[in-house]
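task queued by scheduler; priority normal; single chain, no ligands, no partner chains; default sampling; output format set to structure tokens
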Amino acid sequence: MHPLSQQPIVIIGGFLSIPSFYKNMSRTLYDLSSQPVYICDINLIDWFWAFGKYGWLRILFKLKHTVETALERSYSRRVTLIGHSSGGVIARLFLSPDDFMGHKFNGLKYVSHLISLGSPHYGIRGTAMRNYVQKTYPDGYFQPDVEYISIAGSAVDGAKTNSLISRISYYCYKYICGNGDVKGDGLVPAQSALLKGSIHIILSSASHPFLFARDWYGTSSNVYKWWNEINSCLGN
């Protein structure tokens, strides 16, 4: 398995995100790894299409292009792929060598580590994409060819009686996992973000962006925490 600090990094953002949102995170990752960081050029229109398989295909092609660009400019044969939120779910689909809508992406050939940040891998309710991915390629399906690392935030307690943030989070958590009285990042329960078979990292300070994102997964302090903890777990 390639050390994280010896290969380029590719970031795929979350639902309704735009590449510029990840600029600070990419700079921090560059400082930590001294490796080039590429952000997949997925925009709001791409995500609006992502309710069906043709929309997923559109995103997969963009992800493939970004990975290929990263490798063309590097001596490495593999990349570290970081998927935030829904990006972490579709990244699991990208790994597949199987035919999807008449195309084969075979990302497992090019990805050594898949890091998901607050990705809703599990839930009693799920989007069509999440349900398809989990049914077809459950948990850490492509191990040991790919090392899976899942990072969950636990900054926000879900509760009906506390602050407005806790109350909103309660209903978000309940919708996803069936129980609102759990910890999570404000949107995704921690238990839903921890992929079975992966290295698990829980950040007590991390919240989900677009809701209560004073200290989300991509802030410099949190990136330092999860990057160093991953390297410690991998023995790098």
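post-processing summary
- The first helix runs from residue 23 to 33.
- The two ends are 10 Å apart (CA to CA).
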